[in-house]
Amino acid sequence: MVFGYISPGNEEKLSIGNCEMAKVIFILIVLIGAVLADIVIPDRLDWADFQKYDICNPVVAAQCFSDMDSNHDKIVTKAERDAYYSKNNARIEALNQAMYDSDFKTADSNGDGYVSPAEMDAYGKSLDIIVDSAFENYVNSLDADNDGRLSKTEFVNFEKGWPSANLRFDFDN
Where is the EF-hand domain (predicted)? Predict the structure, then answer.
C-alpha cells in the first residue's frame, strides 16, 4: 500500500473510489467510537463480565485478565484496570520514544541533529511515501522555528501526525 498526504482543501486529488473508501472508513471509526462511548463498564468485573465487555482482544483475554487482577481475587476492579492501563501506557510511550529516536537517527543521515528537506524526502521515499508538493508542504508546516529543517521535536511531530494526516491511499497495491 502506498501512502501520501493530501493537505486540507486539496481533497479533490483523491479519486472517487478512494474518496468513498476514505469516507466509509471515517464513518466506521466515528460509529465505533460513539458505540464505545455509550458503554458503561462496571467497577468490578468477574471473568464472564470481563469477556462480555470485551476489555481485551479475545486471543489474549485470559492473560490480560490475570495481569489486571493484581490481588488474584478473580475480580478486576476499575482501580486494577486503571493501574494496568497506566503501566502499559508508560511502556508503550517508552517503546514509541525508542522508535522516534531510531527513526530520527535514520532520517538525520548526516548526524547533525536536524533533518534537512533532502533528508526528509529521502526518508519519506524509504517508507514508500509519495514525496510531492503536498508532502513537502506538510513537512514545512511542522518547521515551527522556520529554519528550513526539522529538529528532533519537529520530526517527532511528523511521526505522530503522519497517520492522521495521511489521506491518500493506493488500494491497488
Answer: 95-130
Alpha-carbon distance of 154 to 146, in angstroms, equals: 11
Q: With left for phi above 0 and alpha for psi between -120 and 50, is residue 56 left, alpha or beta? A: beta
Nearest Cα residue to 167 out of 137, 136, 134, 140:
134
Domain boundaries, the chain: 41-107
- Domain range 41-107, CATH architecture: Orthogonal Bundle (1.10)
Q: Global pTM? A: 0.57
